[in-house]
Design a protein that fits this description.
By secondary structure, this protein is of the alpha/beta class. The protein has one domain (14-243): 3-Layer(aba) Sandwich (Carbamate kinase), CATH 3.40.1160.10. It contains nine helices and eleven strands. The strands form two sheets. The protein has a nine-stranded mixed sheet, with helices on both faces. A two-stranded antiparallel sheet has the order 7-8.
Length: 246
């Protein structure tokens, strides 16, 4: 899929965007904020116009968090499956927003739910991307005890993505939580090993290890700043990047 005439040449051919459920809740903190969905849909449309093949892995924390329910006494596997179902709701909401923005979109679920989503099949996902459709991966990996961060890394490796973009509420990776520690230092570039050794909260250790083993770069950026996704795709130094060498 070629970029439109007059637009900058993208730095990446195929990307996976890891989007948390909380991001879709906006300032209300729970559920879905229609204005956020509209904005994200519009931003992703601009990325697709650049000629980039775009897949999204979505979380479900705005509706249900398996880890929290497990801590409250629910069996972990049951809680995780419930969390996977929450991601289906978010995926359908994002699909609606994307299609209203003019993007052809397919939801592929790791848990079969044929009335609302296609089952996840790797080759089918790649074919959708090649046809210029946005693919939304829902239900995590389909297995309990794995986070949607791990699902994002796994899907990115499976489809041969060039990079995984981790959307957050801060402008990159910090040495500590900048909301709690005023002395926290912003780290524009770090290695996988640094992330693991320093326990920087980028992604869980399984996801980081998977990216490290497959040399898949991770870009951590601020989703709340409009246009950031397109800037990253065009090669601008936005956020922080995790690679093999600093």
């Amino acid at each position: 899929m070629a970029a439109e005439t007059g637009r900058p040449r993208p730095a990446y051919r195929r990307i996976v965007l890891k989007l948390s459920g909380e991001a879709l809740a906006g300032s209300q903190g729970y559920g879905l904020d229609p204005s956020v969905l509209t904005r994200v849909g519009d931003e992703l449309r601009e990325v697709v116009k650049l000629g980039v093949e775009l897949a999204v892995v979505i979380g479900g924390g705005n509706i249900f968090r398996g880890m929290a329910a497990s801590a409250g006494g629910m069996e972990r596997a049951t809680a995780d499956y419930m969390g996977m179902l929450a991601t289906i709701i978010n995926a359908l909401a994002l699909q609606d927003a994307l299609e209203k923005a003019g993007c052809q979109t397919r939801v592929l679920s790791a848990i079969e739910m044929r009335a609302v989503a296609e089952p996840y099949i790797r080759r089918r996902a790649i074919r959708h991307l090649e046809k210029g459709r946005v693919v939304i991966f829902a239900a995590g990996t389909g297995n309990p005890f794995f986070t949607t961060d791990t699902a994002g890394a796994l899907r990115a490796v499976e489809i041969g993505a060039d990079v995984i973009l981790k959307a957050t509420k801060v402008d990159g990776i910090y040495s500590a939580d900048p909301a709690r520690d005023a002395s926290a230092e912003r780290l524009p570039r770090v290695t996988y090993i640094e992330v693991l050794n320093r326990r920087l909260e980028v992604m869980d250790t399984t996801a980081i290890s998977l990216c490290m083993d497959n040399k898949l770069p991770i870009v951590v950026f601020d989703l709340t700043r409009p246009g950031n996704i397109a800037r990253i795709v065009c090669g601008e130094p936005v956020g922080s990047i995790v690679t093999s060498s600093a």
